[in-house]
Write a structure and sequence with these properties.
GO biological process, one term: mRNA splicing, via spliceosome
CATH class of the largest domain: Alpha Beta
Strand order of the largest sheet: 4-11-5-10-9-6-8-7
Number of strands: 17
Structural class: alpha/beta
CATH architecture of the largest domain: 3-Layer(aba) Sandwich
Strand content: 5-15%
Family: Belongs to the DEAD box helicase family. DDX23/PRP28 subfamily.
CATH superfamily of the largest domain: P-loop containing nucleotide triphosphate hydrolases
GO cellular component, one term: nucleus
GO molecular function: ATP binding; hydrolase activity; RNA binding; RNA helicase activity
Distance between the termini: 58 Å
Pfam families: DDX23, DEAD, DnaJ, Helicase_C
Number of domains: 4
Helix content: 40-55%
């Protein structure tokens, strides 16, 4: 289609492709040097030439040109400098339909130029005709508008280029900062740790210092202290002696003021009485003596609730449960029988330990107990003495009921611990005549079964051997209502949970305690009693407690899993090749004192013991690869100090009490911090101090975090290498906080 822009002297050829691109224009700009009138005349003549039938008789091209000019003036006015799109054209077309009909003779078809159905196909009543108004071209095709659009586009490109350059410069600065921080280091901002008490503390709208009520009101400046009961009363929670002094002073001032007003002279007897009152105010009365005396100076009936609270705090005893009896302060207050007290005195136990103070009164009431205490705290006596008191109430064992099994069962994870408990039990049962039998691996099961069938009140066993005896019918537990699980967490770790559950299921269930916590137990009735002692509370121990214990009282001494304060802990970072030299140096410093060297494998234990023996040390070994007889010989020789060094695996790490161990050396660091706690617990027992030294290498990173926390809690020195190591900063298995990945700088070679 050929159009003419009369106002600018330009011509346009518009080609529209209906088949491939809808509403798409191809514009070819043709500059014409002719004048406007010539262009207009030529266009009209061209149109009239193609359509001579549009020229009436007697009309000339000039007259037709004038009519078209008039139509142009009418039709061009509504379209001047407007947005030009198909929708607006349709609205304009409808608005000027009348004008269109009037001047339709001035419109020419352009089918020959390929413009069929151009623009108004949907709304045009003449579907086969395209309509073009003379010298009217869409606004976006006008040259000056195109120039402006081009300039705006160039400006937008320039702005985008500047933005990209600024972004590139910023990224380059970040890259330089990252390189500087990598090579020069930088201070990382530390977040301020806010305590929960401060974080959630209620905040008023103003500070306390802004309170001016005391300055403005004279009543606040001269407070009046009320004299209760005319000076003879006391306020609770305040020092009684101080209140007495204030009352005596107030009375003296009042008397002096009255005498001065009345002109009365104080008599000598009044002065003496006032002096006596002041002296009495400065002395203790019976109530003051009851409050101000320490709990250790009071009789049992004089103990107040405050005294018991201080007592529990002094020994770091905490309870969890209902209807908890008072702890015992001494053996005389324990309510144990005279035979047991004589046995305690014979064993040399002068004062009960905290776990014994708390657990023995609970056992005497037949309460189920979960004891959590640090190693070396005297847990064995805490459950043996209540167990012996329980058996003393039962009928003596005779030939009639010997075949029904023992009265009580104690389970321990290792043979050595079971034999140690057997020795302690025999010691305390000396005056009672009870028979104690141990059932452990490494010995003939037939002989052990024969001992049980011949009758015994107490069986001390490992879970695996005891369940074997029950399955082979060597033993039954038909009258066993007292069971103790010592080192329960260790038994679970060793995989004895099914065996422990099997033993507990084999016990009679007719004497279970009531499930109601508030219901009191009948002291004359025999209930099934379960004691469970553990240094920690893993999930397996909790499962056993929920299933087999009824309303247990949880007794915690100190912090669960914590080592005693009597142990001095030292950690040394070194290479693997330096360990043996450092071990010899530590053993030389001990002299004749005993030491236990812990390793992780039996092979390593034998190798170290062989090298130490060549170096002249009196050394023996103890591990699971030795027979029961060899293990007993090694342990007995070390206790008798025929050997000063014991190289052992974790067989010795739990529960075994070897007196006067001066030093524990972790030659190989254990894989779990709980085992570390039990290893070093072989020293610092029975109130004596001890030393624990651990050799640490870079292969022990899995315990770095927990070891660092334990050293900090015990106020022990933390090696700089351990404190700075990345593994000591985060708990294993946790994902440390890090910035989002989209903020990381990526370097491209």
């Amino acid at each position: 289609m050929w159009c003419s822009d009369w106002g600018n002297g330009h011509g346009y050829f518009l080609d529209y492709d209906f088949e491939n691109h809808k509403d798409h224009y191809k514009v070819l700009e043709l500059t014409c040097d002719a004048s406007d009138d010539e262009i207009r005349s030529n266009f009209i003549r061209l149109a009239l030439k193609w359509h001579p039938d549009k020229l009436k008789e007697g009309d000339s091209a000039t007259s037709k040109f004038q009519e078209i000019n008039e139509a142009y003036q009418v039709l061009s006015d509504p379209f001047t400098r407007r947005e030009y799109d198909s929708e607006r054209m349709l609205r304009m077309y409808e608005h000027n339909m009348e004008i269109f009909d009037r001047y339709k003779e001035l419109i020419f078809t352009c089918n020959g130029l390929g413009m069929k159905n151009f623009l108004w196909k949907r709304q045009n009543p003449f579907d086969e005709i395209a309509f073009v108004f003379f010298d009217r071209v869409p606004l976006f095709l006008i040259p000056d508008r195109r120039i402006r659009d081009r300039e705006r586009e160039e400006e937008a490109k320039a702005r985008e280029k500047a933005r990209v350059e600024k972004l590139v410069e910023r990224e380059r600065e970040k890259e330089l900062d990252a390189i500087k921080e990598q090579y020069l280091g930088g201070k990382k901002p530390k977040k301020r740790v806010i305590r929960p008490s401060e974080k959630f503390r209620f905040s008023f709208d103003w500070e306390n210092t802004e309170d001016t009520s005391r300055d403005m009101n004279a009543l606040y400046q001269n407070p009046h202290e009320a004299q209760l009961l005319f000076g003879r009363g006391f306020r609770a929670g305040m020092d009684r002696r101080e209140q007495k002094k204030q009352a005596a002073k107030h009375e003296r001032e009042m008397r002096d003021e009255i005498r001065k007003k009345d002109g009365v002279v104080e008599r000598p007897e009044e002065a003496a009485a006032q002096k006596e009152r002041e002296e009495a105010a400065d002395t203790y009365d019976s109530f003051d003596m009851r409050v101000d005396r320490h709990w250790s100076d009071k009789r049992l009936e004089e103990m107040t609730e405050r005294d018991w609270r201080i007592f529990r705090e002094d020994f770091n005893i905490s309870y969890k449960g209902s209807r908890i009896p008072r702890p015992m302060r001494s053996w005389e207050e324990s309510r144990l029988s005279s035979e047991l007290l004589k046995a305690v005195e014979r064993a040399g136990y002068k004062k009960p330990s905290p776990i014994q103070m708390a657990a023995i009164p609970l056992g005497l009431q037949q309460r189920d107990v979960i004891g959590i205490a640090e190693t070396g705290s005297g847990k064995t006596a805490a459950f043996v003495l209540p167990m012996l008191a329980y058996i003393s109430r039962l009928p003596p064992m005779s030939e009639e009921n010997e075949t029904e099994g023992p009265y009580a069962v104690v389970m321990a994870p290792t043979r050595e611990l079971a034999q140690q408990i057997e020795e302690e039990t025999v010691k305390f049962a000396h005056y009672l005549g009870f028979r104690v039998t141990s059932i452990v691996g490494g010995q003939s099961i037939e002989e052990q079964g024969l001992k049980i069938t011949q009758g015994c009140e107490i069986v001390i066993a490992t879970p695996g051997r005891l369940i074997d005896c029950l399955e082979r019918r060597y033993a039954v537990l038909n009258q066993c209502n007292y069971v103790v699980l010592d080192e329960a967490d260790r038994m679970i770790d060793m995989g004895f949970e099914p065996q422990v559950a099997g033993v507990l299921d084999a016990m009679p269930s007719s004497n279970l305690k009531p499930e109601n916590e508030e219901e009191e137990l009948d002291e004359k009735k025999i209930y099934r009693t379960t004691y469970m002692f553990s240094a920690t509370m893993p999930p397996g121990v909790e499962r056993l407690a929920r299933k087999y214990l009824r309303n247990p009282v949880v007794v915690t001494i100190g912090t669960a899993g914590k080592t005693t304060d009597l142990i001095s802990q030292h950690v040394i970072m070194m290479k693997e090749s330096e360990k043996f030299f450092r071990l010899q140096k530590l053993l030389d410093e001990l002299g004749d004192k005993t030491a236990i060297v812990f390793v992780n494998t039996k092979k390593n234990a034998d190798s170290i013991a062989k090298n130490l023996d060549k170096a002249g040390y009196r050394v023996t070994t103890l591990h699971g690869g030795k027979s029961q007889e060899q293990r007993e010989i090694s342990l007995e020789g070390f206790r008798a100090k025929r050997y000063t060094v014991l190289v052992a695996t974790d067989v010795v790490g739990r529960g075994i009490d070897i007196p006067d161990v001066a030093h524990v050396i972790n030659y190989d660091m254990p894989k779990h911090i709980e085992m570390y706690t039990h290893r070093i617990g072989r020293t610092g027992r029975a109130g004596k101090s001890g030393v624990a030294t651990s050799f640490l290498t870079l292969h022990d990173t899995e315990v770095f975090y927990d070891l660092k926390q334990m050293l900090v809690q015990s106020n022990s020195a933390v090696p700089p290498e351990l404190a700075r190591h990345e593994a000591s900063r985060f708990k294993p298995g946790t994902v440390p906080d890090r910035p989002p990945r989209h903020s990381d700088t990526v370097y491209i070679n």
